[in-house]
Write a structure and sequence with these properties.
By secondary structure, the chain is of the alpha+beta class. Helix content is 28%, strand content 30%. It is built from six helices and 18 strands. The strands form three sheets. An eight-stranded antiparallel sheet has the order 4-3-2-1-5-6-7-8, covered by helices on one side. β11 and β12 form a beta hairpin. 27% of the residues are buried. Keywords: Glycoprotein, Membrane, Signal, Transmembrane, Transmembrane helix.
């Protein structure tokens, strides 16, 4: 198998497809000297949802979604386990080759291969991609139009020349990326439509740390991942002093995204600012008008630290009073008792308050 790779496991997962553009992607990742991480991992993803997993620790290809078994023949898992085991050895050798090309010795190194396809279910447009990377940088990529390889570094030119000469394999790659991959993507979408084709509206909140902090419009719990979180001022789109966050995946498979607006309280109180959230596949727009009552914050809540300090001070005062009363009673009965002057006195914990 050809094999150098792309980026770092998970980078591609951040770019997930919306309800209109669907994607099937596979990530093969080999690493060296990464503590507490398998040396080789394969992940198959449909629209940002992991469906297949293999790693060098378990050495088994396993489904991550119940519906993926419906699209697989009975020998699918055994067959892919064998393929992934073979790839594991190839990728291990690739790291050694890459280290030689880049004149490296030991240390942490990552080698990744990513390939897959996208399909726009409205326009019918398809796209295929196949890329390799090393240590987080592009190493080589396949050009579908020319059926040739792009080498962005001097170290990858050797690989380009070798792979360009294998025209039969390049024809096969193009057919897979433009035909076979799309067919499988549609199958997975059909079998997993209850999950992959669902729409879930967002929960939208306006958040602020302090009165002088930016106001954050936070949308979460929505599906699919296609979302636009924008601001309007007096009914017009507003982009000034606005910072947009990335779309992130929640533990339950839904997504979240934030947009931060830097504006003074006087400004938003004298003008109508509102956050508008639009999710692909959901016809309704979700709007939050920036008002004092809508902002969720903790700067108006009691200062917990101050309360704790006050409580501790009061407790210490009570203890001091009690101790003072006890000492006064003893003095009134026995008179003043000086501290011991002996370091070996069993009742003495030290020479504190000793007078000479």
């Amino acid at each position: 198998m050809k094999g150098f790779i792309l980026l770092v496991l998970g980078i591609g997962l951040l770019h997930t497809a919306s309800a209109v553009t669907h994607a099937l992607k596979y990530f093969y990742t080999a690493s060296s000297e990464v503590p507490n991480f398998p040396e080789f991992v394969v992940v198959g993803v449909v629209d940002g949802v992991q469906m297949v997993h293999y790693d060098s620790n378990s050495q088994r290809a396993v489904p991550k979604q119940d519906w993926v078994n419906k699209a697989a023949d009975p020998q699918y898992w055994e067959r892919n386990t064998g393929i992934f085991k073979g790839s594991q050895q190839t990728f291990k050798a690739n790291i050694d080759i890459a280290k030689q090309r880049f004149n490296q010795s030991g240390g942490v190194h990552v080698n990744q291969w990513m390939y897959g396809c996208e399909w726009d279910d409205e326009a019918g447009v398809t796209e295929g991609f196949e890329q390799w990377g090393y240590d987080g940088e592009d190493f080589i990529a396949f050009d579908l139009k020319t059926k040739s390889w792009i080498a962005p570094t001097p170290q990858s030119v050797i690989t380009k020349l070798k792979w360009d000469s294998d025209t039969a394999q390049n024809e096969h790659d193009k057919h897979y990326l433009t035909q076979t991959c799309i067919e499988w993507l549609k199958k997975y979408l059909d079998y997993g439509k209850s999950t992959l084709m669902r729409t879930v509206p967002p929960s939208v909140s306006l958040l602020q740390k302090t009165p002088s902090s930016p106001v954050t419009c936070h949308a979460t719990g929505f599906y699919p991942s296609g979302v636009m979180v924008s601001w309007q001022k007096d009914g017009q789109d507003h982009h000034e002093d606005v910072e947009y966050g990335e779309t992130l995946q929640n533990d339950d498979g839904t997504f979240q995204k934030s947009s931060h607006l830097t504006v003074t309280p006087e400004e938003w109180k004298n003008n109508k600012y509102q956050c508008v959230v639009q999710v692909t596949g959901v016809k309704e727009d979700f709007i939050k008008v920036l008002t004092e009552s809508e902002i969720k914050t903790n700067w108006n809540e009691p200062n917990i630290v101050l309360i704790i300090v006050v409580v501790v001070a009061l407790l210490l005062l009570v203890v001091a009073v009690v101790v003072g009363v006890v000492i006064w009673k003893k003095k009134s009965k026995k008179g003043f008792v000086p501290a011991s002057t002996s370091d070996t006195d069993s009742d003495n914990s030290g020479r504190a308050a000793q007078m000479t």
